[in-house]
């Protein structure tokens, strides 16, 4: 694939040289000329600096939510980046603006929306900010509620927007406790509840159908933060290599949805997306810009976005990717997601039979959370051993494996392992995000290496 990719990169540049007969991608204006030796020296220095990274591309990297974009996305991004369109207005990105509208319609259909309003964003954080901003416009005096496992940015965005934020406890599976939410609604004015479909910590899926029922009863809106888990809607069929269907099937009834193509959509950072089921919320975005929106009477994306300048190249990259890996349940992105899901299922099975490591929770998506067995069955002992394993695994020069750590409330751990002594409120455990399809073939090797390191850490204790 590497040779094919290199050849196509050349085609991308050459293909732009005759754009409208005269344009070439790199100007030869005297003010922009640079010394060739200086350019090569700077590039060599940059490459050396970039060595100070973890190998996110490698299957033994099973830590954070990081992986390289698909080559198709890189080609699409580069092709558009050479023109550098700005998708704020059709004046700045007529082609990529239309591409973005088509893409957003495709994503809306994936979630079951008919009429909708939406656009790409520079991140999931900004996408969630816009969803909560619309929530504030509709219910300015009401609070926003989200689970204890929800992403920390919801509380932060509420601070930015001047909204009261209320944290709802999570249950022993890491999902929002809807009995607690129901009790909260009897004493608080809740305007919007954030349902997380794929928490970034453990991949938990909030019970959306029942949450929507509570929304109808108490009069609150439901926003779905599926920045990480949204694309799993493609394989939400309850099959052996799929995910449970109920909550994903209910997404069509939510008031707004956020999904990040720069996670399971195989895109480079940053590419988020926000969708609204009711297109009339576009009225809140109305503003006057005296120097844009003049080349066409069609909708300019800046008219329905809080952001101004946005890279049209992001839309081109996603379009290119979905042409070759479509939004299909068994081909394209669906097949990729099934491989990630299979990796999590297989590792969970290995952890169940391990004497050195234990599974914290059954994985709902492709995130596996586990902890080391210790002679002293206490939260603090588990935390110390988790820290030791993490350090050994990440810093082994010859045979590393890259994990991440996660802090959970000890009560969640004790719900499944009641013999663990709660000598600390929080326990540090280990976490792996298996978001590369290659992980399906590497899980046994990853597990074996982590077990070896766990044994080394136990011997050194």
Describe what you observe in this structure.
There is one protein chain. This protein has 461 residues and is α/β, with parallel strands linked by helices. The protein has 2 domains: 80-324, Type I PLP-dependent aspartate aminotransferase-like (Major domain) (Aspartate Aminotransferase, domain 2, 3-Layer(aba) Sandwich); 332-460, Aspartate Aminotransferase, domain 1 (Alpha-Beta Complex), CATH 3.90.1150. The chain is built from 14 helices and 11 strands. The chain has helices spanning 2-16, 36-50, 71-81, 94-110, 124-138, 153-161, 178-185, 208-218, 246-249, 312-324, 332-352, 379-395, 410-416, 439-460; strands at 117-121, 143-147, 165-168, 190-196, 221-225, 256-259, 272-276, 357-359, 367-372, 404-409, 426-433. The strands form 2 sheets. Strands 1-7-6-5-4-2-3 form a 7-stranded mixed sheet, with helices on both faces. It has a 4-stranded antiparallel sheet with strand order 8-9-11-10. Helix 9 (246-249) links the parallel strand 5 (221-225) and strand 6. Helix 3 (71-81) runs antiparallel to helix 10 and helix 5 (124-138) packs across helix 6 (153-161). The mean pLDDT is 93.
**Mean pLDDT over the full residue set:** 93
The total count of helices amounts to 14
| Helical coverage, percent range | 40-55%
| CA-based gyration radius | 24 Å
The N- and C-terminal alpha carbons lie at a distance of: 46 Å
Amount of beta strand: 5-15%
- The CATH architecture of the largest domain can be named as 3-Layer(aba) Sandwich
Please count the beta strands (DSSP E, at least 2 residues each): 11
Broad shape: globular
